Amino acid sequence: MYNEKVMKEFISPSNVGEVKNANAVGEVGNASCGDIMKISMRIENGIIEEVKFQTYGCAAAVATSSIATKMIKGKTIDEALAITNQEVVEELGGLPAQKIHCSVLAEGAIKAAIKNYLENYKMGNNA
């Protein structure tokens, strides 16, 4: 069902956990499948310096969270916002059609975390 790269990211995911002193946190979920993704970041000078995830869900949910964090680490906010769920799928070498929603959640969690940062920190409320 899953290719080798998806299984590798599921079995040995990168960036698992929660960023201490995070200034960006986003959480999304899909009620129909039960997957929940939370991404925390530390953004400095517009660059994502550190990013971690906590995901409750299937192998595809964990794999997309892992690869998405790898894709955005070191990127600017604008570069991270430009990443699409299709790019996440391509980076993993594909996903079964019924698991594409996991890549949508990964994209949504990134966008939610950055929105949180822009609303709460960049505006000087907590920085």
Describe the structure.
The chain contains 5 helices and 3 strands. It has helices at 4-11, 59-72, 77-81, 85-91, 100-120, and strands at residues 24-30, 35-44, 47-56. It has a 3-stranded antiparallel beta sheet with strand order 1-2-3. 43% of the residues lie in helices and 21% in strands. The model has no long low-confidence stretch (mean pLDDT 93). It is α+β, with helices and mostly antiparallel strands and 127 residues long. It has a single domain (4-120), classed as Sufe protein. Chain: A, CATH 3.90.1010.10.
pLDDT below 50 for ≥5 consecutive residues: which ranges? none
CATH architecture: Alpha-Beta Complex
Largest sheet: 3 strands, antiparallel
The coarse silhouette is: globular
- Number of E strands: 3
How many individual helices? 5
In whole angstroms, the N-to-C terminal distance is 45 Å
Computed Rg: 14 Å
Computed structural class: alpha+beta
Task: Please outline the helices and strands.
Layout: H1 4-11, E1 24-30, E2 35-44, E3 47-56, H2 59-72, H3 77-81, H4 85-91, H5 100-120
Antiparallel strand pairs: 1-2, 2-3
Helix pairs in contact: 1-2, 2-5, 4-5
Task: Quickly describe the structure.
With about 130 residues, the chain is α+β, with helices and mostly antiparallel strands. Helix content is about 45%, strand content about 20%.
